[in-house]
């Protein structure tokens, strides 16, 4: 079996053909190859922590039209999440100083 390494790009999701979708929909659990997934042992669970999600809060924010158009360029769906990700990375970078 040939192993292909793939890094997913959430902004450019690959589209499956009708044939591929049908094949995956009819695939049983026994036919799925899980051999590349590490088994979760006791050491993993001993160090596991429950992490509460950082909730979002609706706000009204004025941004330049060019900024909004930039984030909506890859589709209006998800543009707010992309804007939030940029703001979050700025906050994390600022907090490192």
Structure notes:
The protein is extended and about 50 Å long. It has one domain (18-47, 59-96). It is 41% helix and 0% strand. With 97 residues, the protein is mostly helical. The mean pLDDT is 88. It has helices at residues 18-25, 42-47, 65-72, 79-96.
What is the typical, i.e. mean, pLDDT?
A: 88
Characterize the biggest β-sheet: none
Strand content bin = under 5%
Low-pLDDT windows of residues: none
Coarse shape: extended
Task: Say how many strands there are.
Answer: 0
Compressed to H and E, one letter per element, the order equals HHHH
User: Please, how many helices?
Assistant: 4
Number of domains: 1
Structural class: mainly alpha
Cα separation of the termini? 47 Å
**Helix content range:** 40-55%
Radius of gyration: 20 Å
Protein topology:
Blueprint: H1 18-25, H2 42-47, H3 65-72, H4 79-96
Task: Describe the structure concisely.
With 97 residues, the chain is mainly alpha-helical.
Which features does this protein show?
97 residues, mainly alpha, extended
């Amino acid at each position: 079996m040939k192993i292909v390494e793939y890094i997913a790009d959430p902004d450019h999701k690959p589209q499956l053909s009708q044939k591929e979708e049908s094949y995956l929909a009819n695939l049983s659990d026994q036919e799925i190859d899980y051999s590349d997934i590490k088994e979760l042992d006791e050491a993993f669970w001993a160090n596991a922590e429950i992490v509460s999600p950082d909730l979002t809060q609706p706000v009204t924010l004025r941004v330049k039209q060019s900024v909004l158009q930039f984030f909506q360029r890859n589709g209006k769906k998800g543009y707010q999440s992309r804007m939030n990700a940029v703001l979050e990375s700025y906050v994390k970078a600022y907090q490192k100083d």
